[in-house]
Amino acid sequence: MQKLLLYLFLFIFIFSCQKKETLFVRLTSSESNITFRNDLNENEEFNIIEYLYFYNGGGVAAGDINNDGLIDLYFSSNQNSNKLYLNRGNLLFEDITAKSGVESMGEWKTGVNLVDINNDGFLDIYLTRLGGYKKIEGKNELYINNGDLTFSEKASEFGLDFEGFSTHSAFFDFDKDGDLDMYLLNHSVHTERSYGSYKLRFERNDKSGDKLFRNDYQDGKYFFNDVSENAGILGSNIGYGLGIGISDINRDGCVDIYVSNDFRENDYLYINNCDGTFTEKLEQYMNHTSRFSMGNDISDINNDQYPDIFVLDMLPEDEKVLKNSAGEDPYEIFKLKLNYGFNKQFSRNTVQLNNGNDSFSEIGQLLNIHATDWSWSTLVEDFDLDGNNDVFITNGIVKRPNDMDYINFISNENVKGGLVQNPSLENSDLTNQMPDGKVSNYAFKNHSNLIFENVSKDWGIDYKGYSNGSTYADLDNDGDNDLIVNNINDVSHVYQNMTMENLSAINYLKINFHGEEKNLKGVGASISIWLKDKMLYKENYLNKGFMSSKSSGLIFGLGRNKIIDSLKIDWPSGKSEILYSISSNQNINFFEKNATKSFQIKANKNYIFHDYTDNVEIDYSHIENNFNDFNREGLIPYMISKEGPAMSVADINKDGISDLFIGSSSFQKSKLFIGLQTGGYKYSEQLEIESDSISEDVSAVFFDADNDEDYDLYVVSAGNEFPLKYQSTMDRLYILNENGKYIKSKKLPEIYQNGSVVKNYDYDYDGDEDLFIGGRVVPGKYGISPESYFLINDGKGEFSIDKNNSFNNLGMITDAVWTDINNDNYTDLVLCGDWNNIKVFENNKHGILKEKVDFIGNDLYGWWFSLEATDVNNDGFMDIVAGNIGENSKLKPTNSNPVNMYFGDFDNNSTLEHIITYFKNGSEFPISNKDEITKQLNYLNRNFLYYNDFAGKDIAQIFSKKTLSNSNKLTVNDFKSTIFINNGDGSFSLKDLPIISQSSPIRTIQTLDYNDDTNVDLILLGNMSSVSPFFGVFDSNYGILLEGNGTGDFSYINQVKSGLKIKGDVVKILPLNNKKSDFIIAKNDKKLSFIKINKN
Prior knowledge:
Layout: H1 2-18, E1 24-27, H2 29-32, E2 60-63, E3 72-75, E4 83-87, E5 93-95, H3 97-100, E6 109-115, E7 124-129, E8 141-145, E9 151-153, H4 155-158, E10 166-172, E11 181-186, E12 211-218, E13 221-226, H5 228-231, E14 240-247, E15 256-262, E16 268-272, E17 278-280, H6 282-285, E18 288-290, E19 296-299, E20 308-311, H7 319-324, H8 331-339, E21 344-346, E22 350-354, E23 360-362, E24 375-381, E25 390-395, E26 397-399, H9 404-411, H10 427-431, E27 436-437, E28 439-440, E29 442-446, E30 452-454, E31 464-465, E32 467-473, E33 482-487, E34 493-497, H11 499-502, E35 507-514, E36 526-530, E37 535-539, E38 554-559, E39 563-570, E40 575-583, E41 586-591, E42 597-598, E43 609-611, E44 647-650, E45 659-662, E46 671-675, E47 681-684, H12 687-690, E48 696-703, E49 712-718, E50 732-736, E51 742-744, E52 754-761, E53 770-777, E54 789-793, E55 799-801, E56 812-819, E57 828-836, E58 839-843, E59 849-851, E60 862-863, E61 866-870, E62 879-883, E63 899-904, E64 913-920, E65 923-926, H13 930-936, H14 947-950, H15 955-958, ...
Parallel strand pairs: 18-21, 35-41
Antiparallel strand pairs: 1-34, 2-3, 3-4, 4-5, 6-7, 7-8, 8-9, 10-11, 11-12, 12-13, 14-15, 15-16, 16-17, 19-20, 20-22, 22-23, 24-25, 25-29, 26-27, 28-31, 29-30, 32-33, 33-34, 35-38, 36-37, 36-39, 39-40, 40-42, 43-75, 44-45, 45-46, 46-47, 48-49, 49-50, 50-51, 52-53, 53-54, 54-55, 56-57, 57-58, ...
């Protein structure tokens, strides 16, 4: 028996030793004495059917209410008593709610803030409520701290007793008069006035519109006056405000505002004009946002000292929940909303990376933090004190109202037992049709360099329930931030951060603020820190977490740095102070009265590039014709018809100035422009070119076709609109005559194709220019390999198909480049394509090209778009830079988890259907939902009557083995843009471009040496907007400048330094001179752009 007990003891000991320590430890109620629960009581009178935000939960506020140096907590309850807990030390709290007088009984409480309203040195409580709706009564409440652990409600005395649809509040000094003003975030409910165009946002609604209150101190009293309209704040009933973030977004010293709006209304980005007014500039700063925007947080995620914006949405990670939930709008509905004046929005978390030049690049999918389900609160903070801001997210909803079977139940007249057939159903009958929405909370560790890792389980916060409001605070004063979470129908959670207990080598700095008389807590002060290996930046704003707030003060994780090189504090008043050589692991108190310097805006005027588009006289703008590929091929990933314009540059008249050919979309005239000494361009009428306006031009090249020493012009036709054998699908060759006019040549073979690229080179070395023509697609048959051609020149401008270089099934080619890969003085050909690999064809010195079968790019299948050959490491061998779709996508294919496309005539209707799939947890699922697939393949409705029948099914459960085996299949295993380093021995090595280069498709690559260091630098441009709703848009590239070091490595030069801010779907960048100092940029459906290098 003793031996058995010994073995049992050893087993328990070993098991306990193997148990991994977590970053956070959740305290039990008996340990913390916090027993608060936000329990909901649903009834027929009030529930989610009657109030769409019934399940949004409550908030939590942190702050030291009695100035004893310990952070106290206040929780809001939707229907029951709020709770105030006094911190007694050692993470033990005392419930003092009843004696403090802050219960706030009755329905319906929402957000909470602890803030010193009257500047007496004690924190007051501001509580927002729903009021004046149905039977819910109540106004927002302000509990003034009496200094003796009791409070008095005085909202009306301060002008803050608003009654309406309040969500939360934020306190900050927007007009720089020294006191704290208040933004009141309100929400709406659906009414007949909720639907229409963007113009509705200018119709003010007193109950649901947001409000800005200015704090006016007069006659010894504080009073808040509504200045919303005069200050430029929108206040309509289409603003469903769920989240508010406060930050100096553009670092100009004036505080800005970000508002997350649910449903179709845009989020709002209010830029402070520094004169007491704001201008809403979201669409000028951001290309797209979340669609059902919920909580947000603003913090610096990449340590460039510019605040970034993280907004939550409700995209599920779980495959079954995903396919059961309402997805993105069909493309036509998406376009309709754009036409109604709303911005591009997608149902996923978004991370807006601040470029520092009044633009943001959205990279949530690149960071893999875009899908966390029904998410409410996000906290972006350095929880493990390594110097990088991590992410915490609360999740869960009691019932899912976006479940497709539920939506079908209440809206489809054919559903037996549904609401249409049974309009007398009780509200409880309807809510019973909604599935449960318990979801795990999430944590993501920031490893720096835009690498985030899901550590929810490892950090011990993967509680599965209905968590809503949350905040952080150093509850035990050990130098790390603990977590506090408000849950529905469960006890609230306090998580102790164990960083300081478990990691002795980690360092921190804790900062307390002591402002002047009207802002004693220094709300709005910011801290910039410089360490030996990184920069840090934080701001002291209180509203953090959904309907929640934190205490004043900041904690900086310093990693292993024991000494801070320098620290700068900027107060909202404009005063500054700088300290040097500061020791870590201490609390520092900053006093505004000690700050003697003035805040200085460091405007960068030494941009590398200057955009001089506005100074160029040229009468041209590409206008895309109205054709929707998805109406014909509903499940392809993106449109093929939007890949123009073609562009080519040459000095046609030999005056030393570059001239331009700009191609057109179908039904628009292509144009030739002659460069002028003034820097502008003069239109040159070319009737034969312009008469081919039905063709869509996607590629062009000036070259000498007939050996008469001038520039002729070849133009590739495309568009994916017209069937083959239409005249518009034929390429064109125009010969320049002695009068400067281009005449259409009849010396081309009769080739009908939807092409992509033309590249000229005398590959047979007979003294004339030959051509390679890449085939993009077979119109209406995406996935089928089109023909690509080598056209051989007879020396007089007559071309024929080179039968010696005829390759079958090259695939859907997107780009090509001629270059000498093996240094044998004969130029080879490199190709890339869509659902394709990178191919190299070596020239055998007699004009015969042979595929290099051992090239490493043969095994890399992607959605490749661009190629450039250059020597990136100065070894004398040509390397290859290849632009791919990038990794800012829901799909991340690898060899073991590829992305596949099955295509064929699945339903025998003489058209191709396309089923794109991806792997998750070892199973292969379609990216399309039930509605999207059955719209193309109606017969599947017989197999999957309900959405729940379809949800979670893998491809083998949806289609028979025979159907799949009879279809065509293409596979991709890599979406990263890459450099192929030529090793000089016939082999190549791979080197991925910097991670920011993966933020969007690279459609065009330009080599240059911007800094004259003899090393190759790169400009990468791209984007794609005409994309399947599953992907949304790819539009995060404003022009990426990569500086080469001569060894094959590249570093990103940020937009603040580069000056690049190119918006739109860029298809081509070309130099305008041999020095490569001036460039022209062509964009689909937009004007041209012109940039040049600033030479100081």
